[in-house]
Amino acid sequence: MKINEFDYYLPKELIAQEPPKKRGYSRLLVVDRKKKTFEEKIFNEIIEYLNPGDLIVFNNTKVIKARLYGKLPNGKKGEILLLRKIGENTWEALSRPAKKMKVGTVLKIDNYEIKICERKKEGIRIIQFLNSTDKEVIEKYGNIPLPPYIKNPEIKEADYQTIFAAKEGAVAAPTAGFHFTSELLEKIKAKGVKIGFLTLHCSLGTFRPIKTENIEEHQMYYEDYEISEELVKSVEEVKKENKRVIACGTTVVRALESQMKEFGKLIPGYYSTNLFIYPPFKFQIIDALITNFHLPKSTLLLLVCAFADKELIFRAYQYAIERKFYFYSFGDAMLII
After folding, report:
1. Looking at the DSSP assignment, which residues form a beta bridge with residue 93?
2. Looking at residues 34-46, what average pLDDT do you find?
3. Helix (H, G, I), strand (E, B) or coil at 151
């Protein structure tokens, strides 16, 4: 399949530049795969589509202040985007300007030093914090790594976290979770719907564009995830009762479906995945999906097209554009049932 088959035109004014004034009040487009119909709702009304005994699985990763600015040996500005911790004070990262970030280069942030230790494929560097801990530098000088399409400088750190963000490590937010409030979660539980959590630290695998013409040639970056024994039991119980497992976000889909593809069942523990989901794909766990509207030609859009149907999803996107839904991280949501 060619990547251009997954392109679409989005007017710039529909790219949300800030979160809604109140969480839970985004718009929701409900896409029914069997009926091939669309319904417009306010996000809080999602509860109408949830049944007692269903299980919603959330990603409880927490975004770290992964973007660091410093000075290169020539006195000019340099930038590092942390991707994935691979050792004590050692990370995989992206850097700018890439040509100046040669092996051995030291980026200085005040009196703190970060060394480029190794250059890998796809522009990735191995970097090490030399005279301090990574945590100290991140907390003191780090910036929330907002996507490049968000130009609003007023975004606060709390705006780019879910309310259940608990385990630090992500460098991009699991944005489908933005729409949930504590109040909505309590109403969902009161209806008899179960709540579960896993952790997948969103990184380059989530947001790197597909650069190959043929989809099958794209290589996903590994992302770390953790599944608890409690979640495994919840999923198994729900499946036995013929109820639904509803994923809140594409990262939840990738974590759970990675387990099934690799082991044929869910096994508690800490893993990493580079699973690339694109049509056709056999889903073994997920029965419904809560997600935002994604970038053209992105791995996230391909996953959504695999879960539903490419023609149906593209009709839904066109419907959303015509009705001026907001797209991307701070945009409106879609529930695919």
Report:
1. 82, 125
2. 98
3. coil
